[in-house]
Amino acid sequence: MTPRIEDYALIGDLQTAALVGRNGSVDWLCLPRFDSGACFAALLGTEENGQWRIAPKGADVSDTCTRRAYAGDSLVLETWWETRTGTVKVIDFMPQRDKSPDVMRIIEGVSGTVDMSSVLRLRFDFGSVVPWVRRSHGHRVAVAGPDSVWLRSEPPVKTWGQQFSTCSAFTVSAGESVAFALTWHPSHSERPKLIDPHKALKHTLHDWAKWTEKCTYRGPHREAVIRSLITLKALTYAPTGGIVAALTTSLPEEIGGVRNWDYRFCWLRDATLTLGALLSAGYLDEAAAWRDWLLRAVAGDPADLQIMYGLAGERRLPEMELPWLPGYENSRPVRIGNAAVRQRQLDVYGEVIDALRLARDTGMDDKPHAWNLQLSLLGFLESSWREPDEGIWEIRGARRHFVHSKVMAWVAADRAVRSLEDDPSLPGDADRWRAMRDAVHAEVCEKGFDAERNTFTQSYGSRELDASTLLIVRTGFLPPDDPRVVGTVDAVRDELDGGGLVRRYSTEGESVDGLPGDEGSFIVCSFWLADALLHTGRRAEAEAMFERLLELRNDVGLLAEEYDIGARRQLGNFPQAFSHIGLVNTAVALAGEDAAG
Fold this sequence. Notes:
Distance between the termini: 46 Å
Number of strands: 26
Strand content: 15-25%
Number of helices: 14
Oligomer: single chain
Helix content: 25-40%
């Protein structure tokens, strides 16, 4: 039986990460980076597409652990198995790397004696390549093309090859331990330096404890906020500061459907909200690294601004399908790369300018070229904001005049005006940007508002609604007590209701996105609703929504992209940065500035 998405927990080393199931199997891991080919791809196929399971001997693949939890405020996963003969604890983690990525799995005897089994199936290039495995100096070495993986155990245990798998059998009694270390390196390079798993565990716990101590948030639900911040840190590519939208590709928005996308890249749409979440919790270094990644990624001709980039700012992210993978619960196709990279989304100009304004307002050291870059982006937007685009949700239907895109064009002009008012020494024409701001505002209020229903719509001339209009109050486009804002919040909550949560937009009939099928409720949109309810003076309703969203987290505090109320399960790529950003920002908003430190 395929594990549910919420059955997985996350471990990582700040350059890549793995998903570990409740059945003890590592079913997803891309090496050496988040966006590399997966060597464990059972998540999107079967065990023959790569996995590494450690569990009590004889445990069926559907058997799950007794309980699991992270060790304190860390990314070290502890899983307990209680058997008829005793109890063991499996400790899974990835130490922050020196050079090569390592996956460490330490099995500790808690009570009695337990026979254990390890089955390692390495399949490079997303489950398509079976490596050649040999013995070398007490290791099992798997090699295929550019990839090489070394496996060892301390102490050595009985290990053999069977049906293109590396199997191990061992017994652990109370007070004993067996440690496995799996290390990747380029096949043309020398064997990587050996790392002591037990020392690595101590260093990893120390590193996370030191990092979480920096959190300045002292409000309610601090545990949930810290877990979300740890998740955001785990999704950060440390060498560049870029934050991937999710760890995975092609986890479906509808089981058995085609809405399966690759989220292992960095989206500009997340810029302001991500920066706000990091700054509000005191993570200035991470915020600065994200800001600097943003400046490098968007540098160049403003007409060529993309909606997403690679971990280091790469621009080419070609989309292709992997026909040998059947997909999660037969949800096809499995895709890598993302064709939406070529879309026009005018809102990202506003996101970038808003994020850089936020960085400046919070006292972050300004980069000399940052303001000139903003002027360049604004100059392009001035001549382009009246054009249609694909909008925030990356529709694959016809371009439209999306209201959210226009509002973010207003944000771009507004933040430029405010920056010039705050610092008249900056170059720029404040009167010109005021004129643009006023023009955008007037057009949106005229063409993007349905007076009969008292709500802003998804696009000009449409009766469809869109959850992104909930952000109008956050941007300052209209004051929170404006009847049009209150009407929009009520209309979105009523018409895009997904069992008490919020859908992005309607997928019924001839959907705007040009795709068949349905999707779940979008988790971050429900956090936006909580924010909008708070801003419009309905604190009790906002708190109730936030409490309900906390209940959607899995047993180790993780959220995917969407939630299916009917099936009571998470959907979409996992864990989703946007969902955890929403959690942090809503918690901070409800708690107030004092709690944020």
